[in-house]
Amino acid sequence: MNKTYPKEVFFNGEWLPSQAAAVSVFDRGFMLGDGIYEVIPVYGRQPFTMEAHLGRLREGLHAVGIHYTANGLLDRVKEAVERAECADGLVYIQVTRGVAPRTHYFPEGVEPTVLLYAYPFNFEGFEKKLVDVVLSPDLRWHRCDIKSISLMANVLANNAARQAGVVENVFEREGWITEGSHTSVFLVHNGTIYTHPKGQHILPGITRDIVISIARETGIPVREEAFAVADLPRVEEAFLTGTTMQVTAIGGIWINGRKSVVSTDRGPVTRRIQEAFIKQTNSL
Ligand code: PDD
């Protein structure tokens, strides 16, 4: 993928050309991965579910004791969208604990480092895709509900998935499906949608919440219950959700080097969810 840097970034209180923004080598984000991040989608110049993303950012910061209110960020997100001059895009926000001599414990009197920028992203056509995923052991920590910038386990897993020629992982913890490396996972069995309950083993996905509301409004039964790996062969449909993949159908799941076919076309439940999702993002 041909990725480019944004022209400008909002860094510690000011907009700067991105080449001019530099972080200290002693920043705890750089040294320890000590920070929280968010990714907000922008459809037709309108940030989507911005309040929910900023709410999750605040909860993450609170959970790890980084004192930053994030109150001003709402306006910064809107500014970022204006400045990036893209109709569809993503806004990335990162707040680290700040710059201090390296210690494992929290340093005192440190200002958080704040970075925010928008960049173009093409969401089009997700509803036409049918992607393969690979079942991978969930080697992450036990606070996956915190959107930490420390993403080593996710990075290793997703890189292995890419090398195997698929786009995403489906993580398994002790025989249960949790989520993807950067998406939530939904499985359909006997017409009912299953997704892992919120808690310390998944990120509370914003797209996940939207999909659950859509299912409830549409009358599709949905259960926030973990799905067993052993039951995967009985899945009728499966899909991934997230800010970068919206609602993308899964065609097959690679398990121990063998492909278990879920579906050769997008199933009726996936289609109904996708249609309602597109309606929401088109009506912003
Ligand atoms: N990832 N699960 C994990 C582990 C994630 O990293 C993400 C998002 C999701 C989906 O959450 P949401 O619907 O709120 O985007 C689930 C972002 C996009 C990322 O890391 O780039």
Automatic annotation (TrEMBL):
Pfam family, one: Aminotran_4
Matches recorded under InterPro entries: Aminotrans_IV, Aminotransferase-like, BCAT-like_C, BCAT-like_N, Class-IV_PLP-Dep_Aminotrnsfr
Record's protein name: Aminotransferase class IV
One of the record's GO molecular function terms: transaminase activity
Organism: Parapedobacter deserti
Keywords in alphabetical order: Aminotransferase, Transferase
Family stated for the protein in its record: Belongs to the class-IV pyridoxal-phosphate-dependent aminotransferase family.
Gene3D superfamilies per the UniProt record, alphabetical: 3.30.470.10, D-amino Acid Aminotransferase, subunit A, domain 2 (3.20.10.10)
Coiled-coil intervals, chain numbering: none
